[in-house]
Amino acid sequence: MWGRYNPLMRRATAILAALVLADVLMPGLANAHGVSSRDAAFVQGIDGPAVGPFLYLGAKHMVTGYDHLLFLVGVIFFLYRLRDVILYVSLFTVGHSLTLLGGVLGGVYANAYLIDAVIGLSVVYKAVENMGGFERLGLRPDTRAAVMTFGLFHGFGLATKLQELALPPNGLVANIVSFNVGVEIGQMLALTAVLIGLTWWRARPGFLAHAFAANAALMTGGFVLIGYQLAGYYVA
Hints:
Layout (H helix, E strand, L loop, with lengths): L5 H20 L11 H8 L6 H14 L1 H11 L5 H24 L6 H19 L2 H4 L6 H21 L8 H31 L4 H29 L1
Helix pairs in contact: 1-10, 3-9, 4-6, 4-9, 5-8, 5-9, 6-8, 6-10
């Protein structure tokens, strides 16, 4: 089965190499999903609780955060029952909420490039699992534990974006909690759209025939993210 997709994987490898080279030449791309300069200037000028703006910023960051969305697509790709979707998304939510709040409010710092590289790894992990890669190696990882663990890294990734801003201490707790709630709102909106698309695709005869290739593309996206972040780390 793997051999059947060798041309796809060769193209994916070439794309990855080109993107990593581009990132070396333009390291700013590695942080392209961070807080925009306009949003940063706005929130840094806020003094006191500002629930609305931080709700908006959290939702916007999740909806435009391709790294988080790629992982979630992988998580729900083969989940057909709504209760399973709710379970795994809840595990992810608990994980990223803990480290988002703890990282910012607790003052826990980490290198943003390395955290984002692990986030890229989470995408690769889920794609490999969906393609049956671990089963071929005789491994049976605990998917629930993995989703929650990677959720911790995703939350830390969100925290590093906020830690780059000089947020006023006045109203900080209310603002960070609002940001986290906004992230959940954005996540719900994005997942709704993804579920609608997946449900439609699953009803088509060719879903299973193309599922492997889709996850191979998802895995490639994860490697691209890893390459971006590691290149940015070494260049910076």
